[in-house]
Each structure stands twice: as structure tokens, then as C-alpha cells.
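As a warm-up, study this chain.
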Amino acid sequence: MTALWQLTKLETKMFFRDKLQVFWTFLFPVLMIWLFGSMFENQAPDGFSFASLYIPSWIGVNIVTTAFFTLGTVLAGYRETGVLRRYQSTPLAPWKILFAHTIQGTVIFSFSAVVLVVFGMLVFDLHMPAYLGSTLLALLISIISFFPFALFLTSLAKNVGTAAAISSLFLNLMLFLSGATFPLEMMPEVLQYVAKVLPLYYVIELLRATWNTSPIWENMTPVYVLLGISVVSVVLSSKFFRWSGKAE
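Now compare it with the structure written out below.
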């Protein structure tokens, strides 16, 4: 456990030393909320404010960006540069490395979520979740769904460039077709069906519901979908974990 804690602490320190990662994780979502707020602040459905729908959505988006870019792509870079090979000569099992990065990603995401909530309260008069316990549980379920999902997808990449391309493809696809940015009602009907294939759609549905209208036990369909993704992703990410980009 000492080695696991030390590895987690080291990875967290390295993240905060990377100004580019800090920008994309903390400042980029704030800029996007401000941008879309200027576009859609007066177009929220009756009974809802822009902040109550879109800030929970962007918190969900931050789970995705953390999963793909803070975890998946970084591990792909470690694999390419031989860092994981050096870990292989230590007592650290693959699950400990993945678990340490998951803890690190959760800590970083938690900081970013607090930043978004505070920004929403100051600029858009965001209210606290109507069902705080359910919202926190929804966030936990989303994390344990997306972190293994991203680790599995990026584990298929042979180098960091391919991992970044995979991450960007999935992020942009989900960002614009899940309802996180543009309202689904504005999209053609076929794209509304496509949105329901994307994992981020269920994260957004769950967060919006628990933040505004109902507890988590009244929104079990997204929970079942996300837990299913989590189980499959954990199995696959463990199966396809590699210490290096070369065939072993």
C-alpha cells in the first residue's frame, strides 16, 4: 500500500507540473461554459436554468477528458517511452499501476468539478444539487465507468500519438453528439438516436436528473448502462494491459 500511495502522489505532482494539462482540465471547461452560456443561457427548457443543465453536463465531460487524456494517453506515453518497462522490474502489479492512476484521476477530477461549481455559482447563479447524495453517487458511477473504458481503448494504441488520436476522436464525437454542448432537441432525429449509443449521454442524463429533478434510484437505466460499461472495460483493460508497445 505504501508503494501504491507513493506512486499516486508522484503522478499527481507530475500532472500539476504540466501547464498544458492543467489548462485543458481546469480552464478550458470554464471557457466553454462561458461560451455556451452566452449562446444558450436564455434557451433553457421551462423550469430549468442554463447552469442547472450545462454545468452538470460539463462536469460529466471533465470525467471523459480526465479519463482519456490524464489517464489513458499518459499511460500510453509511459508505455512508449519505457517507463512501464521499468515498473515491470518492481513488485508493482499491473492492477496497482492502473489503480494508482485511477486515484490520481479522481483527485484531479474532483478539483476540476469544484472549480466548475464555484464558477457556475458566481457567474450563472447555479444552485446546489437537489439530491446531493445521488449526484455524488452518479459521479462515482460515471468515474468507475469511464476510467476503465479509456484505459482499455488507449491500451490498444502502440504509441502516444495513436492514443491521442483515439482519445480526440471519442471525445469530440461524444462532446457534440451527447447533448453536453448543443441541445439534442436541435439535432436531426437520427443524431438523437446516435446520441443514445454514446456512454457520455448516460452520464449527462444521470447528472442532470440527480442535480435537478429526481434521486438516483429513479434513474436506473443510465446506472445499469454505465455499470455494464465499467465491468466490461475492467475485464478488457486488464486483459490487454501491456508493459511496452512491442509484442511480448
